[in-house]
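Journal club side-thread
Mid-discussion, someone asked how the predicted structure for our own chain would compare to the paper's figures. Pasting it here so we can look after the session.
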Amino acid sequence: MTISSHSALCRERPIAIVPGRLSGSSSAQPGLRAVVLDVEEQPPTPLHLTEKPTNSPTHRYGPLARSYYLSPQPNPLFPPLPPIATPQQHAIDSHLHTICSTPLNFANLFYDKAFTLIVDSFTRSSAMEEHSPGVDVDALNESSSSAVKVKVSDTGNRLINYSWEWLDWVADDKIWNVLWFSEYNTDWVKNDVRFSADAYIQMALQLAWYKTHRTFMATYKTVLTRMFKRGCTETLRSLTTESRDPTSSNKTKYLLLQRALQKHTKLTREAAIGCGIDRHLLGLRLLLRSFNGESTPLFEDELFDQSQEWKLSTSGLSASRLFKGTGSGAAYDDGYGINYLAAPEMVKFGIESKFSNPATSTASLKAAIVESLYKMKAVFLVHQLEADVVHASL
C-alpha cells in the first residue's frame, strides 16, 4: 500500500500532575475536544512506528512523546473468526479487534505510548498500556495546546509500506478471543477456598495447558513492584514443583492443590518486594562485558534457556466492571498470550495464539480453562463434603 500524504497530525497538550486527587471527566473533555476538532479539519495520515527511536536525540521527538494521538478508524467492526458461540461473544470479540492488529486498523493506532485511549465510531472505547517509564496522569492542563505536524520522508514512507506488509502477515496469523467465565465467582474462591483468586486462576491455566499438551512448560506471570519508586514488574514463575505433582485420590488432590496455591501466593509476595530472580538475572546478564570475552556457564546452559521459554505468557489486571475484556500477545508461536480480569462476579480472559502453529488452538484452550475451573471447584466441594461427613459422625 502506498501512502500518498507525507504528514500526520497530533496535538501537544501539557500534562498537570495533581498528587492525591482524581479528576473528573470535565478536566479531560476540553483537551480531547480540541483534538477532535483538529482531526475534523485535517484528518491525520495513518502512521505506524515499529521501533522506538531510542538512540536519537530526545528533543526531536519531544512533542510526539508528550501528545495525545487520535485518528479515525476506517472500519471499526472487524468480524471475529469462527466459531462464534453467541451474539454476545460476537460483540465482545469484535470490540477486542478494534485494538488488535488487523488489516482494517493497524495503521491507524499509535502504539508507542505508555497509555493510549481509543474510541471508535460506534462509541466503543478501548485502552492500551505498555510497561514503560511514565507518569500517572490525574488531570489535563486546559490552558494551552498546539497542533504538531510530523513530516515523513520518502525513506520513511518506504519503511511504512514495508511495515504494512509485515503487519498484514502478522495480523493474518493471530486468533484472539475473549472468554467470560461466570459459573462461579472469585468471592467464592476468597471466602470458601480462602486463597487469592490470582493463585487459583494460575493453577487453572497450568491445568488447562497440561490438558491440551500433556506436558509442562515454563509460565510467565507479571508481578508489579509498585512499592519501589521506579519499580515496574518482576517475573513470577507459576510452574512449580507443587503445581505439577501427580495424584489420583481426591484427598491427595486437595492437599496438593492447597500446597500449590500456598506456594504461588508466597512467590507473588516475594516478587512484589524485589525477591524474585529474573530481574536480578537480567541485571547480571547486562553487566557481562561480552565484548571483552566475559561469559558464565549459567547463561549458556540449555536448561537455563528453556526455563525462560514462556510458552504460557500470562498477566492479571485489576478487575473493573467497565472492562469487557483484556488481552496480550503470545511470546512464542507455539504458545499463548493470556490476560485476565478477576472480578467478584466473573473472570474475563483474553487469549491469543497463532493460526500457523498446529500445536496451539485458542478455542481448545478456552474449553480446557473452563473444564479446569470446574474440576478444581469439584475438588474443594468433595473435600468439604467429606469433612462435613466426618464432623457429623463425631
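Post-session note: The chain is about 35% helix and 15% strand.
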